[in-house]
Design brief:
Layout lengths: L1 H24 L6 E2 L8 E6 L14 E5 L8 E7 L10 E7 L7 E11 L6 E8 L9 E10 L5 E10 L7 E6 L12 E9 L7 E13 L11 H6 L7 H11 L7 E2 L12
Antiparallel strand pairs: 1-2, 2-12, 3-6, 4-5, 5-12, 6-11, 7-10, 7-12, 8-9, 8-11, 9-13
The protein binds calcium ion.
Amino acid sequence: MWKKARYKIALSVLLLSLFSIMGVHAVKNRPVKEQNDPYERASVVVADFNDGTLINNLNGESGTWEKNPDDKMQRIAARFNSSVRRGNDGSSLMLEYNVDSSEDAINGFWTQLGGLDVTAYDHFEFWVKGDNENGYTTTFEIEFKKTRKNAEGNDEVIKASYVVKGITSNWQKISIPQNVMNGISDWRDIREFVIMFQKRRVDNPKGVLYFDDIAFTKTADPGPKATDAVPHRRKKSDRDLTDKEFAELLIKRLNGFPEKVFVQKEFPAGEGNF
Ligand SMILES: [Ca+2]
């Protein structure tokens, strides 16, 4: 009996040591292959906000931003909410925005992705809901940023932007195929994810939105590849497709996808000041 107990203790010590060693080296953003999934969905979590800090799951910093901080009529605050969240524990990100200004106010939230390579994934996903008590916009814009060398060999920032629509007061998962995001075709070295509240785009100038479980995921259906669209572009050889036409074409090819996410119809240049 003692022998057995000693064995158990020894095993426990061994396991504890092993776990602590693993713990030291564990990276929060380690890609996780979900179990019992016939399609073997793999994902990399960008931010689950569960530890209630502005350091995301990729060890990147996060924060709010304002296009014009001197404009005191607009503001944004980020908090963590442990009662409104996805899952049984942790928290969500709670953004309290206000762009109810006489100026063309824009503010939002950014989180650093640290040059993440997401070519192994095909969708960008997150959960979002509006707050009934404080009100909320049903639409806002998101953006990805990366840098690349221009012809002169200097770094230039390139962006992919999207307008998300149809937000309700219930949690819903927004799932955007990377292939339909115009602006970025090479999904390596992604630097930043940004949420934007623009006075001229939101349908409620102030309110509260909750975000949770931001991730890149590999799904069973990656959607059409950008290269698939080349013949369609050539069909209209008299003139190039506009970004909007191109996006509509891609969405048509997805048989109605996406229902909840709409590709933006314009690409503002130079917005934001990060
Ligand atoms: Ca969470």
